[in-house]
Design brief:
The chain has 20 helices and 25 strands. It has three domains: 303 residues, P-loop containing nucleotide triphosphate hydrolases (Rossmann fold), CATH 3.40.50.300; 120 residues, Domain 2, N(10)-formyltetrahydrofolate synthetase, CATH 3.30.1510.10; 87 residues, Formyltetrahydrofolate synthetase, domain 3 (Roll). The model has no long low-confidence stretch (mean pLDDT 95). The strands form six sheets. Strands 1, 2, 3, 4, 5, 6, 14, 15, 16, 17, 18 and 19 form a twelve-stranded mixed β-sheet that branches. Strands 20-22-23-21 form a four-stranded mixed β-sheet. Helix 6 runs antiparallel to helix 10 and helix 8 packs across helix 10. 35% of the residues lie in helices and 19% in strands. The protein is of the alpha/beta class.
Length: 560
């Protein structure tokens, strides 16, 4: 096993069960299984009868505290927790997002878990998998080409090239494509205009795929997409262009959930992958619903901390999909606590109990945030090799002092066995639900400004919201078109409760700066861009791609 990359080595050494056996375990009939090789498949839910009448499983949402740049092991904890429930002989499924290639080749790494708590085949999932991201990219860029062609061929709809909302996308971190000019080269090459690229996971097509319930709903959402505005500032939709059917056709296979397995043999649905800092950050509604219909316990995760993925899961995905989580987990690590307690990234491996306890202000706010939704979260203290026993015990003691449920998670090293303590706490939390249970934090009918103000004050600890840049004019446009009562998806740094990534811990008294409001009518929400957040990331000085390659036998090297 490679000391430099144990996750990949563990995954490559694993003996996987045929996907047909995993499907049988999950209760998926053979006629609904569309194999992509021996160890992965799509599930055609149209071939499964009675799903709508099946009893719904208990739904466990895994979130986290504000992370360090390397991540805190949320996907690892999610997978290990699911395997722990499987070890308890409970019918379990796990529902995760698909990894984006840009971050894999950049700095963040994949999204298949780690150590002995992984979904496999790890290489396939982290690379091209079943082609869903490629389908989304092609569908998105086909629509972009059709928009430009419509303008070039006479522009019957009167689309103003200066007010086109629709960007092209690519699944690469490529800062050079953030702002570009297209149509250069003369009259036969199209109409020159400013354009730009987003990363695939920030696209509205990705959000739509993850929120659509079936093909009919997928096309209805695509038809509602607003691609731009006319010279009279009237919105132009995909339905106006008449190409919704073509875009839906390109996505019909991508809409089907993907079935794989964990190292512990738990059936896993890995489908969809919007980023939580620039999109809604949850796996597909179709996959979550399928898992709920087939299991007794479904474990899912939402990206980054509770202020991002979890809030969007609870206020957007659950609202649009009719979900009601039964329990929540907040993943914490000693190293993240020390960073929020004032320790520099280079010194996180050094024991510092005082800094770790100081950083609990961040963790405490995440717990309190989830309580505002009617949930009583369990803290999963995810053990890393550099943690000392004294540090771990200090944090668990702090949690007990605060009256928080908490347990040590050792799933990276021990798989499901290392998650049994967390699983016990989750089951106990389900049995002791108090109050009226789960509820949303805000009512979109009150308007975008009210929704933003509630999130800023209740979740981020801010005093107020300031609309600047394009945001005031965009708010008037939303109100004029009747779109200001949609849920709001805040695009914000993952490293801080504020829009300033350097403001760690649990800041208060700050202001949330909203620079733009972008309607995503097909997805069913409005994106609020805050601070300096980008919808097309860049690569670091030394991208992970420098350490990647293949062996003579075709096995990947350097994936993590």
């Amino acid at each position: 096993m490679s000391a430099e990359n144990p996750d990949l080595a563990i995954a490559q050494a694993a003996t996987l069960l045929p996907i047909t056996e995993i499907a049988e375990t999950a209760g998926i009939p053979a006629e609904a299984l569309v194999p992509y090789g021996s160890y992965k498949a799509k599930v055609d839910v149209r071939q499964m009868q009675g799903l709508a009448d099946a009893p719904s499983a208990k739904l466990v949402l895994v979130s986290a505290m504000s992370p360090t740049p390397a991540g805190e092991g949320k996907s690892t904890t999610t997978v290990g927790l699911a395997d722990a429930f499987t070890l308890k002989k409970m019918s379990t499924m796990v529902a995760l997002r698909e990894p984006a290639l840009g971050p894999i080749l950049g700095i963040k790494g994949g999204a298949t878990g780690g150590g002995y708590a992984q979904v496999v085949p790890m290489e396939d999932i982290n690379l091209h998998f079943t082609g869903d991201f490629h389908a989304i990219q092609i569908a998105n860029n086909t629509l972009a080409a059709l928009i430009d062609n419509h303008i070039h061929q006479g522009n019957q709809l009167g689309i103003d090239p200066r007010r086109i909302q629709w960007k092209r996308v690519v699944d690469v971190n490529d800062r050079a494509l953030r702002s570009i000019v297209v149509g250069l080269g003369g009259p036969t090459q199209g109409v020159p205009r400013e354009d730009g690229f987003d990363i695939v996971v920030a696209s509205e097509i990705m959000a739509i795929l993850c929120l659509a319930t079936d093909l009919a709903d997928l096309q209805a959402r695509i038809d509602r997409v607003v691609v731009g505005f006319t010279y009279e500032r009237a919105p132009v939709s995909v339905a106006d262009l008449g190409v919704g059917g073509a875009i839906t056709m390109l996505l019909k296979d991508a809409l089907l959930p993907n079935l794989v397995q964990t190292l512990g043999g738990t059936p896993a649905l890995v489908h969809g992958g919007p980023f939580a800092n620039i999109a809604h950050g949850c796996n597909s509604l179709a996959a979550t619903r399928l898992a709920l219909a087939l299991s007794d316990i479904t474990v899912t995760e939402a990206g980054f901390g509770s202020d991002l993925g979890a809030e969007k899961f609870l206020d957007i995905k659950s609202r649009l999909g009719g979900l009601s989580p039964d329990a929540a987990v907040v993943v914490a690590t000693v190293r993240a606590l020390k960073m929020h307690g004032g320790v520099a990234k280079a010194d996180l491996a050094d024991e510092d109990i005082e800094a770790a306890r100081a950083g609990t202000v961040n963790l405490a706010r995440h717990v309190e945030n989830l309580r505002k939704f009617g949930l009583e979260p369990v803290i999963a203290l995810n053990r890393f090799p550099t943690d000392t026993e004294a540090e771990l015990e200090a944090i668990l003691d702090w949690a007990r002092e605060q009256g928080f449920r908490a347990a040590l998670s050792e799933v990276w090293a021990k798989g499901g066995q290392g998650g049994l303590a967390v699983a016990d706490e989750v089951l106990a939390a389900m049995d002791t639900v108090e109050g009226d249970g789960f509820h949303h934090l805000y009512d979109p009918a009150d308007g975008i400004e009210a929704s933003l103000r509630t999130l800023a004050r209740e979740i981020y600890g801010a005093d107020d919201v300031v609309l600047e840049g394009r945001a005031p004019a965009q708010l008037r446009m939303l109100q004029r078109n009747g779109w200001d009562t949609l849920p709001v998806c805040v695009a914000k740094t993952q490293y801080s409760f504020s829009d300033d990534p350097s403001l760690l811990g649990a800041p208060t008294g700050h202001v949330l700066h909203v620079r733009d409001l972008v309607p995503k009518i097909g997805a069913g929400f409005v994106v609020a861009l805050t601070g300096a957040i980008m919808t097309m990331p860049g690569l670091p000085k030394e991208p992970a791609a420098l350490r990647m390659g293949v062996t003579e036998s075709g096995e990947s090297v350097g994936l993590f």
